[in-house]
Amino acid sequence: MTETVAGQAGGGTAVLGGGALGLTVALRLAQAGERVTVFEREPIAGGLAAGFQPAPDLPGGGPYLEKFYHHIFRSDTRVTALIEELGLGERLVWPTPKNAVVYGGRRWFPYTPLGLLGFGALSPVDRVRMGAATALLKAAPSHTPFERVTAHDWLRRWMGRRVYEVCWQPLLRAKFGDRFDRISMAWFWARIHYRSFALGYLAGGFQQLYDRLVAEITRLGGEVRLAHEVLDVRYQPPGNAAAADGPPPAPWTVRWRGPGVHAVSETAFGRVVSTLPTRLTVRLVPQLPEEFRRRYDWGEAYGAHCLVLALDRQLLTDGTYWLNVNDPGYPFLVLVEHTNYMPAADYGGRRLIYLGNYLPMDHPLFGQSKEEILAAFLPAVRRLVPAFEDSWVTESWSFAAPYAQPIVTRDYPEHIPPLKAPLPHLWLGSMFQVYPQDRGQNYSIALGERLAAQFLSTHA
Ligand SMILES: Cc1cc2nc3c(=O)[nH]c(=O)nc-3n(C[C@H](O)[C@H](O)[C@H](O)COP(=O)(O)OP(=O)(O)OC[C@H]3O[C@@H](n4cnc5c(N)ncnc54)[C@H](O)[C@@H]3O)c2cc1C
Predict the structure, then answer these.
(1) Which residues belong to CATH 3.90.660.20 in the chain?
(2) Chain-centre distance of CA 265, in angstroms?
(3) Cβ distance 93 to 201 under 8 Å?
(4) How many angstroms separate the alpha carbon of residue 335 from the centre of ligand 1?
(5) Residue whose CA lies nearest to ligand 1 atom number 23
């Protein structure tokens, strides 16, 4: 039995995915009077930016913390504007935390001009080259000239082989594994060009933004169905549908599984917006033409993993927030001490640490238990901080997500699908269309707004 969304001729709009992008599209459509229904597989909104409550003993279950470390930059104007629009502006804070790298067994601070001067792992000439090339990337107004070359080639040429091997090759390897030498310089340019020293955080967690979006969509008459996994999406051309008297039939059928193992059902809609990774959308919509699949069912993505630790004391006592681990042999690529950025008092005194990784989605880590991961990771924490003892860990959580980091090779832009799919009333917007910037909440929100504007002008 197919239910039809009532209240709108043609059946309303289904939005697949309740992350930053899907909820932004749904908000803008609902504000324009569209009847929207969001399907989100997870029991919580927010997608990759969703949080959990690490201090449930505090009133109201305590603040949220992202499952994967998150902050925003000064250039992230769309997410900042949305935070203001939804009445959360006074919770947005902009500290300038300390960032460091472990190289040669030592902690260095080369990410500020002053810190770079003291970066003894590089010769004075290399330090000058690194500073000058970074300044050039900050000043270059467009990514276009950088599209023709890989970061691997450009950085070795302009910053020098030693700078590349000490600073950037470990970063590229950590994010992209053995594809490290194929990543577009346009992507690297955007990382340097748009990033600020001050980092914005929504005190209490970015989850508040996503909960506020859900509340606002609901207030406007839309529906957000959490814990609803979309199984497939099919188009029935109106000519084949039983056209009785009354409103035109809704041509799209979304088949979904709700909470509970047997709760498979379907709903008819007039229009569908998918905000899932392109490769997932292509699997869910079997009628997408072969030619479209050949071009856009393409490319690879890494999954993300974070082990989050609550400690009874500060770990990086010099106040470092972000620690890139560029020495070989560590089982994680970054250590982020969140409570060297936000006050530990917000979390009942807990010191919160992320140990993060990007890995191929079939990597064995994704199949390991939290206990196995702790056993592998804690000795490596001790290697970084010799005083560390396992008994400092009071709680721990392990989080994993597939499709977390697109692999932005030079041919990536040729495989970014258009927002309008080649089937009637089907739209595609996903973080895999964000380019050349690294994916981020800001860019999903900006893309969601662009998609909603095009949708509304087409269907007006
Ligand atoms: C480790 C890590 C660190 C990051 N750090 C930052 C940062 O510091 N700052 C920042 O701004 N951004 C950061 N990001 C990126 C940011 O989280 C993403 O860019 C943004 O959240 C993407 O939003 P989205 O809606 O486009 O995609 P997603 O969040 O991936 O949303 C897609 C949604 O679709 C749902 N879904 C998938 N399949 C189905 C299905 N079959 N049925 C129903 N629903 C489905 C998923 O559950 C998900 O909620 C980070 C990401 C990671 C992984």
Answers:
(1) 71-80+87-95+198-204+302-406
(2) 29
(3) yes
(4) 21
(5) 20
Q: Where in the chain is the domain with CATH 3.50.50.60?
A: 2-48+207-299+409-459
* CB of 229 shorter than 6 A to ligand 1: yes
Q: Does residue 451's CB lie within 6 angstroms of at least one atom of ligand 1?
A: no
Amino acid in the structure at residue 103? Y
Tokens representing 292 are 């479209």
Kindly indicate whether the domain formed by 2-48+207-299+409-459 is annotated with CATH number 1.25.40.10. Answer: no
Place of tokens 């606002």: 216
Q: What is the pLDDT of residues 346-355, one digit of tens each?
A: 999 999 999 9
Task: Tell me the pTM.
Answer: 0.95
Ligand 1 and 421: CB distance under 6 A: no
pLDDT of residue 7: 47
| Number of neighbouring beta carbons within 10 Å of residue 216 | 18
Query: Which residues in the chain land under pLDDT 70?
Result: 1-2, 4-10, 240-247, 261
Q: Is the CB of 72 under 6 A from ligand 1?
A: yes
Q: How far is the CA of 297 from the centre of ligand 1 (A)?
A: 19
DSSP state of 285: -
pLDDT in tens, 273-319: 999 999 999 999 999 999 999 999 998 899 999 999 999 999 999 99
- Please name the fold of domain 71-80+87-95+198-204+302-406: Polyamine Oxidase; Chain A, domain 2 (3.90.660)
